[in-house]
Design a protein that fits this description.
globular, 41% helix, 12 helices, 324 residues, alpha/beta, 15% strand, single chain
Length: 324
Amino acid sequence: MFRRLRRMRLNPVVRNLVEETVVRKEDFIYPLFVTHGSGVKNAIATMPDVYQLSIDNVLKECEELESLGISAIMLFGIPAFKDSVGSEALSEEGIIAQTLRSLKKHFPHLLLCVDLCFCEYTDHGHCGILNEKLQSVDNDLTLEILNKQALILAQAGADVIAPSTMMDGMIESLRKALDENGFSHIPLMSYSTKFASGYYGPFRDVAQSTPSFGDRKSYQQNPANRREALLESLEDERQGADILMVKPTLAYLDIVRDIREHTLLPLAVYNVSGEYAMLKFAQKNNLIDYERVLLETMISFKRAGADIIISYHAKEVARLLRNE
């Protein structure tokens, strides 16, 4: 005898009518890594189908993204040179500032999000100015250069600024700097709960941002701490963040749910490089029904409470949704 739950699953039309969680191509932001030069498309062994691209190839990539219905990107820069303070990130001719101006000209309707950090730009690979005595990032000095970087990127055409340094007070400081310089309309999508995770390995290959010494545990979130993870995001909300974020995602869906239940702000998740690489490895070795597992994974992010998904899988998901 069929009972209530089975009755609601038997007919496929009924199943679709009562489906609670929906993944849309509009939910995605696609990360892009930009480097100097022309005609550059450098493959990354640990991240299949992800490349370091020169600006001309970024433009070609964005043509494909628009054709797939993906309307938002996140830009990461690979500088021509690195120094102790990440000087290229503080230049109007830095790689991301150049990219923003070009994209605004050719793709005026594309949402241009920019990662705001210094790990790619510093010769030591940490996320700001070092305090030599502590052998860690100097919080307040880094806030000063974050403000400078944010204003350069806002002037170049950034639509959304996403600070990822995990500095105390970064949202309050950035909001003040943007507001006082005529950019009060630009949202801040904070990496509000960013864990000191082992899932970032492949990203550091493509962004060339591996620390030259130590790790980032003195400023990124401890993976063991659930209450602190919630506190981090709620503090950034108090300081004025417009969108909160959890990074990584797969091992932290409990944190996504915790934050979702304590805020009304939009919530993003970053489906990071290690998570991407694991699925691609499983696909390459025929270990799983890749497309089915990919969509199931994205559904889990939405079901946990995410509104926005930053993912290297975005193009694949858009193609799958188009073919449904």
